[in-house]
Amino acid sequence: MRVMFFIRKLLIGGSIINAVNLAGILKKRGHEILFVAENGDIDSLVEHHGLRHAPIDWYGRKHPSMTTVRDIKRVMDGFKPDLVHNWEDSIQGIEEVLLATRILSDTPLLITYMGNHIFKEFHFPQCAPITIAVPSLAEEAFEVHNWRPDLLTIWNARMDLAQARVDSADVKKFRNLHNITGKTVILTTVRLETAWKWHYVKLLLRAFEKIASEYEDAVLVICGDGPAMHETRSLADTVNSTAGREAVILPGWVKENHIAYAAADIIVGQGSTLLWALAHGKPAITVGTNGYSAVLEPEQIDLLEFMHFYSDKAVVEPEIGLARLLWRMLGDPAHREDIGRFGLRYVRKFSLDVGACEMEEIYEKALGWQPPQSIVLAELIRTHMSLTVFRARRFLHRMRPGGPILQPAVRNYMVFPREREKA
């Protein structure tokens, strides 16, 4: 099958890396793959998998852009894909993709959304199959947004488990390079973007500040880069000043993330970062934007999986809650080993090999979905109108930090059946 992936830009991020890794294994399984995306931080990963890449200019244009539509259509005319796979980071580019694939041509389309929220401003077009990563959001999609059940499939982030086999010499080199030999390493890998995941990084820094003086052999390593690096560095300096030592280390973007995971003792994060932690046999702590935190351990793993290892649930004194979890993990190496062994068993279900087989079945379903152009046009108009509101609110939030902020229509923890029963 000839599959064209469309992603706005090859940026650092678990979702986009997941797309590239999936494309790589699909290529090994005999499919012909083309990436259409603006050049970015992980171009080398695309090259590593031997994937074809057609660069386009995205961020230099205002959207929706007919120039972008023509670029997509030009690439399609040359590649002649059997299917176009629109990945999460290009959800806001769905207008151009719909025009190119379903109005100006008749090419089947699959939409993948790996996010943790369904924003109330945004209308997902109901004229193509959709995969979603968060099981709890499937309920919200049906009950609140009236998505069509026959179009929706749950497909989670997947891991190439072979990458978790890291040579001990590489781990030693990483620890020596960053002066953390003999230290207990708390690690997170993240794109430092002020609008989204930086909020949990800020919470992690404040929680670590509360215990850094007590656990002098512990260090927090934040692997990542992005627009919020300046703010992150400022907070890290504060933590280091409080601890009286270099307790927080900012190595920037680490190309070989799996070596960093292998060098860690405890891993904190969201989404695929946590699955990588389990694949490396490390204890993992999920942290939500509004302060929810939990250890991925057997007693609550089913509920956490239902949430895709994330919750927007607001908690009182979140820094204290996270600090207690870190304290417990730092003080009990045997428990860390037990959780690590559990993680190695549990993460097998998220194997990229299994995920590729599932995606091939989803592709076959998408090939058979050909709605009338009248339905596509109606959905395109609804999507465009909703995106106009989405972009306006995002602009206001970025211009005025105290102004309107994008919010999910229903916070995902509110729609969990088991959570409702507990309430």
Provide the succession of SSEs: EHEHEHEHEEHEHEHEHEHEHEEHHHHHH
Tell the overall outline.
globular
Query: Largest sheet at a glance?
Result: 7 strands, parallel
CATH-assigned homologous superfamily of the largest domain: Glycogen Phosphorylase B
Strand segment tally: 13
How many domains, as an integer?
2
Task: Write structural notes for this entry.
- The protein has helices spanning 14-28, 43-48, 66-79, 94-103, 135-143, 168-177, 198-209, 229-243, 257-263, 272-279, 301-306, 318-330, 333-346, 352-367, 373-399, 417-422, and strands spanning 2-9, 32-38, 52-55, 83-86, 109-113, 130-132, 152-154, 184-189, 218-223, 248-252, 266-269, 284-287, 293-295.
- By secondary structure, it is of the alpha/beta class.
- It folds into 2 domains: 2-158 and 353-399, Glycogen Phosphorylase B (Rossmann fold), CATH 3.40.50.2000; 162-350, Rossmann fold.
- The strands form 2 sheets. It has a 7-stranded parallel beta sheet, with helices on both faces. Strands 10-9-8-11-12-13 form a 6-stranded mixed beta sheet, sandwiched between helices.
- β11, α10 and β12 form a beta-alpha-beta unit.
Sum up the structure in keywords.
single chain; 423 residues; alpha/beta; Rossmann fold; 6-stranded mixed β-sheet; 16 helices
